Amino acid sequence: MSKEVSGEMEHILKIPGDVMEALRLPPDEVETELRKELALYQRGVLSSGKACALAGMTRWEFEELLGQRQIRRHYTEKNLEEDIKYARSQQLRLD
């Protein structure tokens, strides 16, 4: 939800209770902090891993939040290759 306040746009985020608990921040700080992580990720300043670490969320929680906020994920072919390489290296360690 957005509204104009004093000539600036104000955005209101609805955060599920379980995400609030996972953030471990005082309630009055959560919205400000979460907005920062999402904005930094959206602008390409932070990777999703760094943004979710900064937000104090698991990768899955952060991915779910991106979907809820309709924020496009930054995932390139190079990222896919790196993930495949990592997965294969982990599989070799298990064998």
Structural classification: mainly alpha
Number of beta-strand segments: 2
Reading the helices and strands in chain order gives: EEHHHHH
Major sheet summary line: 2 strands, antiparallel
Low-pLDDT segments:
none
What is the distance, rounded to the nearest whole angstrom, between the alpha carbons of the first and last residues?
A: 50 Å
In a nutshell, what does this entry contain?
This protein is mostly helical. 62% of the residues lie in helices and 8% in strands.
Give your account of this protein's structure.
- It is a single chain.
- By secondary structure, the protein is mainly α.
- The protein has one domain.
- It is 62% helix and 8% strand.
- A two-stranded antiparallel ribbon has the order 1-2.
- Strand 1 and strand 2 form a beta hairpin.
- Helix 2 runs antiparallel to helix 3 and helix 3 packs across helix 4.
- The radius of gyration is 16 Å and the shape is elongated.
- The mean pLDDT is 75.
Could you outline the blueprint of secondary structure elements for this entry?
Blueprint: E1 2-5, E2 8-11, H1 17-23, H2 27-42, H3 48-55, H4 59-68, H5 77-94
Helix pairs in contact: 2-3, 3-4
